[in-house]
């Protein structure tokens, strides 16, 4: 279980997070929605340990998250982070090795995730030669290759075609069903409503509501405009 408690973060005089709290349970697929600049990316980066909060705590299974806990998380960043010159499979092997897997285990994991994201036949293509949607599938594979204990994805659906959206949805649901807590941000409210059990709405650096997803688009308009 991932718990974010009273996170605060300012960049100069711009307050990005203003006491944001959130609990993400094992096996929960939680949508994270809010207007541009509401604080979603900042929250995710703090959860991952990429960014330090000014105040507040990140707990994993009830205790302060350690670097080792964070290393077990999977992250799909908003500013995609692939080596575009590298071939897809080699890159995934590299990421698995960075997570401490031995060469044989890393190779098997890379093949398994490439297969899962439907790119087994493009394994030896350089990332830059893949379409943007397929690059995103490699990015998803990179988030999955070390079998993450918690999955955090920043706008994973942006730029995907309908087949890619279905694949991303299936993979996220599958990971949650396997007991992994999954948090992802999106501006596609209908998609979040269809896919998630719960949603957290962020506004002004706080979670203004968290709970059932039913009627999300209408509720969102009320809360975020208010
Ligand atoms: N590195 C930074 N330097 C200065 N300001 C920042 C930085 N990162 C974020 N901010 C500011 O913090 C606020 C929250 O930004 P954040 O990226 O977390 O929002 P978001 O909800 O992810 O938005 P979007 O939906 O547009 O991705 C914004 O006002 C943003 O301009």
Characterize the structure shown:
By secondary structure, the protein is an alpha/beta fold. The mean pLDDT is 93. The chain has helices at 40-48, 67-71, 88-98, 103-116, 132-144, 162-177, 189-195, 216-225; strands at 2-11, 14-24, 29-34, 55-60, 63-64, 73-76, 150-153, 182-185, 198-203, 206-212. It is globular, with a radius of gyration of 17 Å. Helix content is 38%, strand content 27%. Strand 9 (198-203) and strand 10 form a beta hairpin. The chain folds into two domains: 1-72 and 149-226, 3-Layer(aba) Sandwich (Rossmann fold), CATH 3.40.50.300; 81-147, no CATH class. Bound molecules: adenosine-5'-triphosphate. Residues 2-226 form the ABC transporter domain. GO terms for molecular function: ATP binding; ATP hydrolysis activity. InterPro entries: AAA+_ATPase (IPR003593), ABC_transporter-like_ATP-bd (IPR003439), ABC_transporter-like_CS (IPR017871), P-loop_NTPase (IPR027417). Keywords: ATP-binding, Nucleotide-binding, Transport.
């Amino acid at each position: 279980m991932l718990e974010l408690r009273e996170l605060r973060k300012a960049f100069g005089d711009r307050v990005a997070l203003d006491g944001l709290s959130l609990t993400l349970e094992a096996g929960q697929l939680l949508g994270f929605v809010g207007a541009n600049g509401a604080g979603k990316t900042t929250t995710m980066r703090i959860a991952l340990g990429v960014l330090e909060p000014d105040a507040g705590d990140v707990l994993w299974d009830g205790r302060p998250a350690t670097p080792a806990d964070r290393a077990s998380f999977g992250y799909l960043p908003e500013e995609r982070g692939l080596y575009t010159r590298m071939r897809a499979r080699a890159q995934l092997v590299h990421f698995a090795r960075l997570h401490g897997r031995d060469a044989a285990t890393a190779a098997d994991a890379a093949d398994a995730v490439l297969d899962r994201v439907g790119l087994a036949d493009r394994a030896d293509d350089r990332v830059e030669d893949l379409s943007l949607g397929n690059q995103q599938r490699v990015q998803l594979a990179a988030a999955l290759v070390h079998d993450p204990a918690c999955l955090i994805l920043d706008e994973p659906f942006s730029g995907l075609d309908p087949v890619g959206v279905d694949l991303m949805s299936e993979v996220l649901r599958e990971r949650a069903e396997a007991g992994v807590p999954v948090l992802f941000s999106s501006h596609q409210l209908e998609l979040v409503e269809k896919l998630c059990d719960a949603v957290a709405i962020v506004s002004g650096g706080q979670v203004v509501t968290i709970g059932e997803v039913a009627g999300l688009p209408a509720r969102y308009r009320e809360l975020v405009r208010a």
